Amino acid sequence: MSTRRTTLVVREAVNKAYFKPVLFLAVALVLATAISPHFLTIRNIRAILISASPLMIVAVGEAIVVLTGMIDLGCESVLASSGVLIATMDLMLRFPTFISFTLTLAFGLLIGVLNGLLVVRARIPSFVTTLGMYWGLRGLAMVISQGYPISPSAVSSSVSFSFQWIVSNFRGIPVMVIIAFAVAIFAQIFISEFKKGREIYAVGGNELAARNCGVNVDLVKIQVFMVSGFLSALAGIIMTAWINQAYAWTAQGFSLQAVAAVVLGGIPFIGGFGTVIGVVIGSFIIAMISDLIVLLGVSPLYSYIVTAVVLVVAGLQVQKGKFVK
Amino acid sequence: MSHLLLEARNISKSFGAVRALENVSLSLERGEILGLVGDNAAGKSTFLKILAGVHLPDHGELLVEGKKVVLRNPRDARHMGIEMVYQDFMLAPNLDIVANIFLGREVTRWRVFQKLEKKKMKERAAQVLEELGVQFKSLNTLVMNLSGGQQQMVAIARALLYDPKVILMDEPTASLSVRAIEPLLQLVENLKERGCSVNYVSHRLPDVLAIANRIVVLRSGRIVAERKREETNLEEIVYFMMGLDRKEGDA
Fold first, then answer.
1. H/E element holding A192?
2. Which CATH code fits A18-318?
3. Can you give the pLDDT at residue B251?
């Protein structure tokens, strides 16, 4: 009797969408601890969380887009151009922090609207639309910054970004980590408990059915890109404060890392399945791989190859449906 | 109030060079089951989709309870009490039974943010399914894990959720096993008892003859015959579907 009950509880847990990501994480933690005794220390975990934060924020936005069955390749360029924008407004134009913050986040939202309109009105696939943003917004960042890094230390050693607090600590916990987790928790509740989240899943599951049931599919598509644009801009602000400069080439390869975190997190490319919690774990695992490589004293040049292997293995787990494109 | 629940006047619809419907006028009375039959490409599905708000007609008008309406999308149609059960059910396989039944019409609170009232929805879904006489192990089963017959019950439950006036059924038996067909026909009869009008489209003529009060035959986008069930038989309906000239019927 009790064994049956245990089996039932176990089976229920296995069926939960975040089971596989949690399993991945457990396996990764055990392996990492076995490989390096320095891994499971508060100092090291803290370092991983800090380095994972910007990716986590971008990946949450990416997850919302992929849940509908689309993709956003432009995140990293929104991130870089947002960084250049806020640095310019902060250092050169001397805007109040509140204004430059708001304008930068509004820029992210605007890019999202543009992406969405190109997909739903011009009917260009999201892959192509956001690939355009990927190049276009890097270009914008280059033009604004003229290819030079924008850094407060270039002005004077006593000057710093007015939004530097975003990378400070609050009661010993890095603010950026708090922001990243707040974003993730908020997003998770939003997609599982609110009507809009339900609609996002429905679009990923069966777009035509959602449309015929009265879901405003076009609006949903525009909105998911707005979320992604907003979060990428937020990550851009944090990254700028973190590395204490804005540079047009910041966060190269970040879009694909975010996609990798989404896949590791258990969201298939057709959308409709998976959770934000999974994606948070995915981001953490990616940050962990780089960390482990450093801890082991292996050349960082290997980190991409290790990430590739982990990703492909994870990819085996997330295929849903018969057809793979 | 008009005794006609739904009236279509001179509906025409083309897709590019293809004329799907030409001057189709049809009405549906309260509590009536209207069988709409025809060969492939006769325009049956197109007609239903116009009534469901999926397509806008090129010409002609629709009246609901005597009032002229324009159905720009399925939402408009639902507001008028017109529900459609699609041939392929139009369910989201990744969502559970309750979520599919309430898809697009979730019960929520907190006006702007619209938090889902999951418990209320589950209770109401259970109620509707009970009325239909179907049982599921768990209402949180994903639709992808249900059989064809079960999926259809979910689709029908969705249509019945807010006491519709008209239910449009497009080939409801197409993805059902033979065993599941008989209960479905019984169900359609029950809908009539509830005061629903049903517009039933099917290839399976014996089914249509068994349940419909009235049968309308479409051929190449036009109505070629309209018969009360008592006044007709299978042969006559087939004859109308194919047309006098067999070649024309094939075209």
1. helix A175-193
2. 1.10.3470
3. 40
